[in-house]
Design goal:
Blueprint (H helix, E strand, L loop, with lengths): L1 H35 L1
Length: 37
């Protein structure tokens, strides 16, 4: 049970990092487009 809880926590952490990375990429792309124009 403890192992399952730890695995679930790790998956949640990875999901948060993945969403944050995607958010940063969208912000950088939008900022780059603003500078280009």
């Amino acid at each position: 049970m403890a192992c399952y809880a730890h695995k679930h926590k790790g998956n949640t952490q990875n999901q948060l990092e993945f969403e944050l990375e995607g958010f940063m990429q969208r912000v950088l792309i939008r900022h780059a487009n603003t500078l280009r124009f």
